[in-house]
Design a protein that fits this description.
Elements (H helix, E strand, L loop, with lengths): L4 H15 L17 E2 L8 E2 L5 E3 L5 E3 L5 E3 L6 E9 L4 E8 L10 E6 L36 E8 L2 E6 L2 E7 L31 E4 L8 E10 L2
Antiparallel strand pairs: 1-13, 2-5, 3-4, 4-13, 5-12, 6-9, 6-13, 7-8, 7-12, 9-10, 10-11
């Protein structure tokens, strides 16, 4: 069937509208973040953490001695956070957003998972626990984490209930968390881990940003941790 000029224009406008949803819905690239504000400064005096656990090593990478989180001192709402990370074998970590209670962070935040997917211990793990997904809630669209010792890049954009994640140049999450209304079941009917006891739909869309420390004996390293508020 021949497409008329009107049909072409309508299709083009529809594509533009889709691309413009929340300003980031269709973007798969990482931003140029070199001039953005560091989430944590070198003195770590704008962070909340147990003293002695988190520090910058001789290479300038942020790392931890224990499985404890480091939190931004400020709350963030409508933002993009950009970070690079590397880890040891069997690593399990994460970037936490929208945390409204750092003393009880697990049910009161959303974790974007960091995992050594390719390790033998993790090959048969629940897909919602894989690198780049929403831990316990949503499997990543692609499984593209790099090998231990190599650097990965993750860009998380959070605007209200819309969460968009890019890992190593590919979209792993692009979803509306208002769909998660059940404390026990994900929208697809799969089980939610019992320690994630609050529906994502009820999660405030303003809170602290955090990084998880050394878990299960596997080291984790972060660098170029930068944040930018959205207009």
């Amino acid at each position: 069937m021949m497409m008329t000029r009107h049909d072409w224009m309508a299709g083009a406008m529809a594509c533009l509208a889709l691309t413009a949803v929340n300003g980031f819905a269709q973007k798969a690239e990482h931003p140029d973040s070199k001039d953005w504000k560091p989430l944590f400064n070198k003195a770590l005096d704008n962070a909340v953490f147990d003293k002695g656990v988190w520090y910058y090593d001789d290479n300038g990478n942020l790392t931890a001695t224990e499985d404890k989180l480091i939190w931004s001192a400020d709350d963030y709402e409508n933002f993009t956070v950009d970070v690079e990370y590397s880890f040891g074998p069997a690593a399990n970590s994460g970037v936490f957003i929208y945390c409204s209670d750092i003393k009880d962070s697990t049910p009161n935040s959303l974790e974007i998972q960091i995992l050594d997917d390719n390790h033998e211990n993790n090959k048969n793990i629940n897909p919602t626990w894989k690198n780049g997904g929403m831990f316990g809630r949503l499997a990543p669209k692609v499984f593209n984490v790099k090998k231990p010792g190599e650097w990965n890049r993750m860009t998380i954009t959070a605007k209200g209930k819309h969460v968009h994640v890019v890992v190593n140049g590919e979209v792993t999450v692009d979803t509306d968390i208002s769909k998660w209304t059940d404390p026990k079941k994900n929208p697809d009917g799969s089980d939610i881990p019992p320690w994630l006891s609050k529906p994502l739909a009820d999660l405030p869309t303003k809170g602290r940003i955090g990084l998880q420390g050394k878990h299960g004996g596997a080291p984790i390293y972060f660098r170029y941790i930068r944040v930018k508020p959205l207009e």
